[in-house]
Amino acid sequence: MVLILAGCGGGGNTNWQQVQGNGFSFNAPADWTVDGATATNGDVDRVEVIVFRLQRPYEQAKRAAVARELDRNASQLATQLKGSVTSKRWAQAGGLDARSYTIGFDGKTEEITFALDDLREYQLLCRRGASADAAPCTELLRSFRVR
User: What is this structure's pTM?
Assistant: First the structure.
């Protein structure tokens, strides 16, 4: 079940709506269309969270090996999109260790963050036009919470 609540978030006059998925929530722009745990605006702009089950529990002590595997996956995705990884870094999302990537392709920017929690991987995806406002992507990472 998805619940949408109108609200205000950081970023000036931008209004946000809260999107709740199975065990998590995040903010999306208030005027975007929500379907499940995805919010869209037209054919390009998109924020979503997908949950995957890991084969082995995530261990922070193995962070370097996890980074190598995720870096390889991001590189393969960029190749499929005929683009390139323009940045990669460790971050926090909802208090979880997260590995973030920015991929540029075909006039678009895709930001993908993998937040890791024991046997769960939360994939936070934000896609926008390359010159579009990054506020929805910033708010997705800022507001993401695991319940």
Answer: 0.88
